[in-house]
Amino acid sequence: MDAGEKNDERYMRLALEEAELAAAEGEVPIGAAVVCDGRVVARAHNRRETDADPSAHAEFSAMVAAARELGRWRLTGCTVYVTLEPCLMCAGLMVNARVDRCVYGAADPKGGALGTLYDVSHDPRLNHEFEVTPGVLADEAAELLRAFFRARRDARRAARAAAGGPPGECE
Ligand SMILES: [Zn+2]
Q1: Active site residue 59
Q2: For the sheet containing 131-133, what is the strand order?
Q3: Which end of the chain is more exposed for a tag (fewer CB within 10 A), N or C?
Q4: Is the pTM of this model over 0.85?
């Protein structure tokens, strides 16, 4: 593993920590970090339910926070680390923010816009292209998501059983 790959894993660990914070808040566990010239300028996690905001995706919020921190809308020199492949909205913001690179963990077959369903990073019709490194700590990111959805299914099943069970059965 070279120094670049080691750094990618180190920063992806921060994004995974953010994903765990999301899970603790009952949010789908997706986390992100923005690194500019070797400095972590923003971290964020998914807060769609908490904020009742369809744009509150981890990497979207992290990019907005990074721009605020840097005092510029252009995120030139920045790499966005995110645990799940970005959707169209977030990949679109990466184009608009002129990011240098995106490193993501698990691919998203249901909405991935950096190589899976679409590839917004290298579309010559758009005015910016950026580098993408997929699959960094992908297993850990995917396992967080699987565990979250498994727990949610179990909780719903338990709630249904409790609602339908005979009175007094519930502790
Ligand atoms: Zn998104």
Answers
A1: yes
A2: 39-45, 31-36, 78-84, 101-106, 131-133
A3: C
A4: yes
